[in-house]
Amino acid sequence: MAPEDTARRDQTTTRRRPGRRPGRRNDDWEDKRRRILDVAAEVFFVRGYDRGTTQEIAERAGMSQPTIYHYVGSKEVLMSEIARQVDRDFTKALDDAFAVPADTATQLRRIIGAFVRSLAINQRTFAVYWKEFRALPEDVGREVSGHERDFVTRVEEVVSRAQKEGVLPAEHPTRIISEGILGMMSWMHWWYRPDEFDPDQVAAAFCDLIGLPTGN
Q: pLDDT band for position 128 (50/70/90)?
């Protein structure tokens, strides 16, 4: 069988079962998938989803195109998996922030810290998630949008408690304050530089900016 036929066969198989590997998935497998998604996000961020190609992604990642298809899938699957990676990482971060009972101020600080750290490792994937959201398949868009709404609702519940306890201003609608906090953190995808700021430093600055006291 010619090499191009083998590549075509591998691509077709991967389209049916993107990102799947026979046997036990290990850390190397997940690391390589994440590397591919990060590089794909970089290409889509610079080129746009329509102009970005799996060939350029493969070249930037130092891999072959069949390898990209083997570990993740087609360009459409790459975009879907970028959105799901952001979804998973931010949801897990929020779950971790809620894992240990705490007073409201401490819990809100944990949420802010978790969000900032997640964005720091998803800087490009997060940016592409927002920039190219319309490129997602309809079912994937519904899936991640639903989780996003749940995320915002959980944050709003903490903000509401903070308002009732006098931790945050009570005279403004909870939605405005919640979206302001989330928007402040989300925009760091544009200006954050890991060689200039530490995520914990950024989180502490955000907490101080909204006058959030240190919890007990």
A: very high
